[in-house]
Write a structure and sequence with these properties.
With about 290 residues, the chain is α/β, with parallel strands linked by helices. About 40% of the residues lie in helices and about 20% in strands. Helix 1 packs across helix 10 and helix 3 crosses helix 4.
Length: about 290
Amino acid sequence: MPKVAIARSAEGFVLRAGVEAYERGVAEPILIGDVDETRRIADERGLDISRFQTIHITDDEQAVTEAVRLFRDGEAQLIMKGLVSTATLLKAVLNKKTGVPHPSRILSHVGVFESPLDGRLMLMTDPGVNITPSLQRKVDILKNALDVARKLGIQSPRAAILAATEKINYPAMPATLDGDILTKMARQGEFGDARVLGPLSLDIAVSREAAATKRFDDPVAGNADILLTPNIEAGNILYKSLTTLSGCTMAAVVVGSQVPVVVPSRGDSDASKFHSIALASLLAHRSSV
């Protein structure tokens, strides 16, 4: 069973997800933080953490540095955020001397969910890391998402580059031009066997009926596996619309470094936190084989 280093661990929802992950054979937590406070919170919630390794560190930066060290030394296979900020954790991951950055990739946030329309497994990106990505950043974000899709067994992934309209409207809507350029890059083989289409409105990307009504005859239209949003605001709104209005359980990880990183939001459900650990565990396993 892979091990997940949790920094810092004195947080009830994260502990519950960690215990569930262990009980279901997904991952075994290593608890980094204030050990006494972690045990107190676990006892309050009836969680048995006696079987888990604990490391007493109360400083945020030291805790995330220790989590990264555990991965570098092969003692953990994934990392999860507890009571530290996402920025502090990702800074440690990206540290050129002590971290685990990827030599040619950027970090991006990928969410995986079941489509409320037809139950298909879908991905969305980037709701949590890149604020206003440039075209080159979108290339890298898309490559990260395609890598996740392939590791999930999606052959020839279909990616929709989202915008408010299918027509190029530049400079008023830069995302429309980015979508067109990414589509042309895909046709030239930049993304391997993936199908990429943009700019696309959300309804055409996910609804076969909407695609047919608007006469979009393309394998991506109505069948997108990946939704790439224009910026973090659009991505965050889509993410939370899916989880709050549609009731989707979202599994989300930060990818692009050598280690999958689970960065749960305070608003994420227990199920979402557990599924995020499961997703990170699967990605870690399929990166090592």
